[in-house]
Amino acid sequence: MSQIAINTSQNVNINFNIASVGERMIAFFIDLFIKIAYGIAVLYIFFTVLDLGYLLQGMDYWSIGAVYIMLLFPTVVYPVVLESLMEGQTPGKKVMKIRVVKIDGYQAGFGDYLIRWVFRIIDTSFAGVVGLVSMIVSKNNQRLGDIASGTAVISLKNKITISHTILENIREDYVPTFPQVIALSDNDMRIIKDNYLKALRIDDRQVIRKLSDKIKSILKLEVDPTKMTERQFIGVIIKDYNYYTGKDS
């Protein structure tokens, strides 16, 4: 499996496995199935459950087309919306454990996902041959949208054991949550871990809260407190850092 070296803000190169063409195609078809299922469900509700087909009677082709576009619009913006909300993933990518990342080491943003989405028109032309050929011939399996946005799709299936980490044991099937941790240095992470463990030993909730807030501030993260406690958040950050760096102690 080919790899890509991403340079972090601390000028540290981290190697990631590039998602294979096969993985990306399977993810694409999973997402396509979801979109088709959505389309069938919406049209069934519109025409059968709500029996609103009569509204189209007497309309010209343009008006009818506009109605269909409104009903099926979520399938059109599906990739850019979900990649923005799921930090570079769609349900298909999540199932295949692959993610969109910026090659320059920064977290991909809405603008990057939007560029990928716009170029999807070209990539999917000729039954997707253009995008497929681009992924095959490009160095990092990039389609035109990836090249234009400076992104690549990486695999999250790295096999990592305790011998490869500096902080904590990680399961082989571990899937990271915050790719932004690559912006931290080894020294940053050692400080985080040391302070976190000390605070845990004496149950210093104030230190844990301040540490959590500091990490979120540095990495520009927003975490829903109802879904992840401060202690869980710091624990995930430590594991994610080990996953991405694979440093030896």
From TrEMBL:
Recorded protein name is Uncharacterized membrane protein YckC, RDD family
Q: Name one Pfam family in it.
A: RDD
Q: Does the keyword Membrane apply?
A: yes
Key words of the record: Membrane, Transmembrane, Transmembrane helix
Compartments, record wording: Membrane
Give the chief site where it resides: membrane
How is it placed in the membrane, per its record?
Answer: Multi-pass membrane protein
Segments forming domain RDD: 19-150
Q: Which residues cross the membrane?
A: 25-49, 61-81
